């Protein structure tokens, strides 16, 4: 496919179909970390998640589904221009437009969290009344980072301003500036600190029937479970809790229309537990979410 790195033709997510045309779901990588504020390296996340997927079973005992039950294609990584955030974001937005035009369910692998912003823009043009579920350690509600508006600390603020804050639901938040927490409490967004599964379960009935885009930052996990991320934050949830949240969404009446998982930075995790966990989450997302 145009603008995709074919170097990953031999390194695809487990059980990927070779055919884009015959697939309902498309997995794709966004290897960008041009705006990170602490440790770089998330551009290597998509490839390492794919490698880790080879150790997975293709069957999910949680959902009683097998990857052979779904038609999904791993398109590889977008060929993003190194160090050029705006052009990279434009390319991502154009790619999502193409996927949606072709009737695909997109699941993105980051890369830094700024990559979510152009996806939300494209999704909102396709789906009226779009809502966003945001699972993360950080608020990501800054307007800029040290004067730079294109930053991985800004995508959820941009989403709030684009969709309306009442259409954004954040879970697991435990880090951010005072001004970000003040915005969260006064803007009308749905904002839940520290925990994910229980508040998500309470909110999901309010999203019944609505198109929902889900973005997960791996740093919502405690560093004990996911040290391989650029901005690790102590006090997070467990892998089990994030799996429960994914399954709550799968069993809800929300109409999930796309998703991403971002901020896996493999260089900081010699044990590879971060990408191993990420690969399992992606499997559950592929099997559980597009069925609506």
TrEMBL record:
Domain of life: Bacteria
E.C. numbers: 3.5.3.11
Enzyme kind, highest EC tier: hydrolase
SUPFAM superfamilies the record matches: Arginase/deacetylase (SSF52768)
Similarity comment: family membership: Belongs to the arginase family. Agmatinase subfamily.
Record-linked PANTHER family: ARGINASE/AGMATINASE, GUANIDINO ACID HYDROLASE, MITOCHONDRIAL
Name of the protein: Agmatinase
Organism: Thalassorhabdus alkalitolerans
Gene, per the UniProt record: speB
